[in-house]
Design a protein that fits this description.
Blueprint lengths: L1 H7 L17 H12 L4 E4 L14 H29 L2 E5 L12 H20 L5 E7 L13 H9 L9 H13 L8 E4 L8
Parallel strand pairs: 1-2, 2-3, 3-4
Length: about 200
């Protein structure tokens, strides 16, 4: 993907990586991005672990992973990026989930982590105002997980049937909403936009 983007516009894309649960690595990650491009205008917290955690089977490893990727990493990435985002009057978009408001059966830790990320979104909007806007996007049925748990066609059909638009969404639906919040919403902060075909009001 990086090479494809750079073919369209040379030197426009670069790839950086870090263990997002390692808080010590995050300031270095931000510094590397600023070093490459000279500034940082936006942060999109999209990295996430997702799998079932029924109450009786939850262990501390799952807690560290699910809360780490879905809540801890966004917090400390925002902290590391805050000075540059304030300088640039930038924006943050967190990818949450409609199940932050209505927990998913059997996915207790994931639901708790995403609920925390919703609270973090609103808290950061307060903490980082007025220079930085912070919002969230809550996807519904966009891309099915590939872990085998969601291969049941009938189960998928029932979920889609609960969307008001009676269809799955596309990754572009999320991308366009993120782009809107970053570039075209100068008076929106502290909000969560559900991009779910109306499923969250019809569960």
């Amino acid at each position: 993907m990086r090479d494809e983007l750079n073919e369209i516009r040379p030197e426009s894309a670069a790839v950086f990586q870090a263990d997002l649960i390692d808080t010590q690595a995050l300031p270095q990650l931000v510094a590397a991005v600023v070093g490459q491009f000279g500034h940082l205008d936006a942060l999109v917290n999209n990295a996430s672990s997702f799998y079932a955690t029924p109450l009786a089977e939850i262990d501390e490893t799952q807690w560290v992973d699910l809360l780490g990727t879905n809540l801890k990493a966004p917090l400390f990435l925002a902290q590391a990026a805050a000075p540059e985002l304030r300088r640039r009057h930038g924006a943050i978009v967190n990818i949450v989930d409609i199940h932050a408001e209505r927990p998913m059966q059997g996915h207790l830790l994931y639901s708790v982590a995403k609920a925390g990320l919703v609270a973090l979104t609103r808290g950061l909007a307060q903490e980082m105002s007025p220079q930085v806007r912070v919002n969230a996007v809550a996807p519904g049925v966009i891309v099915w997980p590939e872990d085998g748990e969601w291969d049941d066609v009938e189960r998928r059909r029932k979920i889609v049937a609960h969307t008001l638009l009676k269809r799955e969404g596309e990754p572009d639906d999320i991308a366009r909403t993120v782009q809107f919040l970053l570039n075209d919403a100068p008076y929106i902060t502290g909000q969560v936009i559900a991009v779910d075909g109306g499923r969250s009001v019809n569960i």
